[in-house]
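Sanity check. The docking grid for shikimate-3-phosphate depends on where the pocket ends up, so I'm generating a full predicted complex first rather than guessing from homology. Inputs follow.
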Amino acid sequence: MILTPHEACEPAAVELVDQLWRVLGADVEHMQVEHHDEVLAATSHLPHLLAFGLVDSLAKRSENLEIFRYAAGGFRDFTRIAGSDPLMWHDIFLANREAVLHILDDFRDDLDALRNAVDTQDGHHLLGVFTRARVAREHFSKILARRAYVDAMHNTDLIYLAMPGGKVSGRIRVPGDKSISHRSIMLGSLAEGTTEVEGFLEGEDALATLQAFRDMGVVIEGPHHGRVTIHGVGLHGLQPPPGPLYLGNSGTSMRLLSGLLAAQPFDTTLTGDASLSKRPMNRVAKPLREMGAVIETGPEGRPPLQIKGGQRLTGMDYEMPMASAQVKSCLLLAGLYAAGQTSVTEPAPTRDHTERMLQGFGYPVTVDGNVATVESGHKLSACHIEVPADISSAAFFLVAASIAEGSELVLEHVGINPTRTGVIDILKLMGADIALENQREVGGEPVADLRVRSAKLKGIDIPEDLVPLAIDEFPVLFVAAACAEGRTVLRGAEELRVKESDRIQVMADGLQALGVKAEPTPDGIIIDGGPIGGGEVISHGDHRIAMSFSVASLRASAPIRIHDCANVATSFPNFLGLAAQVGIRVAEEGK
Ligand code: S3P
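Predicted complex below; grid placement will be based on this.
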């Protein structure tokens, strides 16, 4: 219910009307009359004009009987509102003349462009309009849901109920790698020619990146069952987006895009959901400013990021203070546009998908020890990308099969890039039985089938050099530690505190709630293996926390209720389906 009180309205009367509607169950908003008329001209009045106009236009034609006889669902759906009250709509158009004319003129321009595209057989234009339109409705509902998420957390509390016990078995392929999926869209968009992607992760994070590039004028078809076709626009072909780029929960999108956008001729604003809005962005904003970028952050270096376009960037040598592939990739992407060379030195090896994929697109990158260097002036040429299954998603099942007695599971086609396999090394140090079968290289990335059998795990001191190589897998590794005999100690992992949640604290809280001895430290955690009970845990909107506690149920003595699980869809859309398939008894509560 939209109320549009005049200045002369008595506040108490407005409040009374407001309350009346709320008591009846309405969501009430207040708007200025002019604003209301502008918004409604677009969302209601224009569609009515089109429906009335289309039906009348067709009805006048001599073959009209034929047209109406064969009119199918599409015509019916589009013209349903032409059955509305003619007199009322006559009044509305006369009363809201200005705003309607404005939106109608804009629409007429767009319609002319479509006509022209049909006339000149410009399939690219048609595909652009159609692919954008198809996802736009869903995309905008997500942005609007963000408001609900911030305002009323309880509305979006998706609860998983995980029943205790069980074992896992079978052969599965988990969805595509998140890091590689993001990069395939970015580099495919900046390439010259058409890039085909297979195995793309249809999770919300990667889709946020995809939408951002659509918003910047790139025509992208799909995804359909993991297939995406990107019509690259070249390094200098992006267009200004119509508004802020909304990146949902995805830190990777925001950090990598900031490097790219700092070098564009237009301004951009990057925003995200409640969790992303708390994450540190100075780690990219500061070095980008040293290259000449103009970027403003929110308070304390948090999103939103306002990026001023039209700057001339200069390459530099940057020593990263933390081991972060996102920071490295951000600067290398900025380096594609910066005068001279851009080098990034990392304190410890981090995932190198950006370097590999740039090379796959024919862009020269030099990697010398811990230094990666690019220089501007080259171009990206479209290619074919096969995204392997995500080892970070496979990790949940590696731990599941390890801790549940009598399990044997094969995970197919998993990416085993050496900068990502820390989880396998750590689990093997703990005594896990994991075999890498059928090792091969696909599109510049090594892959294998992973066979895992249950094993008696023991607690270990996790070697610090493995931390960046398993950075996303610690929540589920903590579950493995809780099931191991003896003590597991993690140090040097303070980065875990600034992920989608503070993963040290949130996991410690959850494990303690289940009766496990878990003591957080500033840069890690100490976990004593022992029995796991049932109880309530809160994932704080962090996908990996929600999935980790689902896995813990295999060794729990009673059900585990896991709160705030909606974000599992950011990285692992079919987690519940695959979990059920292999024998983990977790489902949405009440389903
Ligand atoms: C990622 C890098 C890592 C990782 C994230 C994905 C990437 O972040 O945690 O999930 O795709 O580059 P940091 O660079 O912050 O360690």
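Relevant for the grid: Residues 147-155 have pLDDT under 50 and may be disordered.
Also worth noting: The first strand starts at residue 2 and ends at 3.
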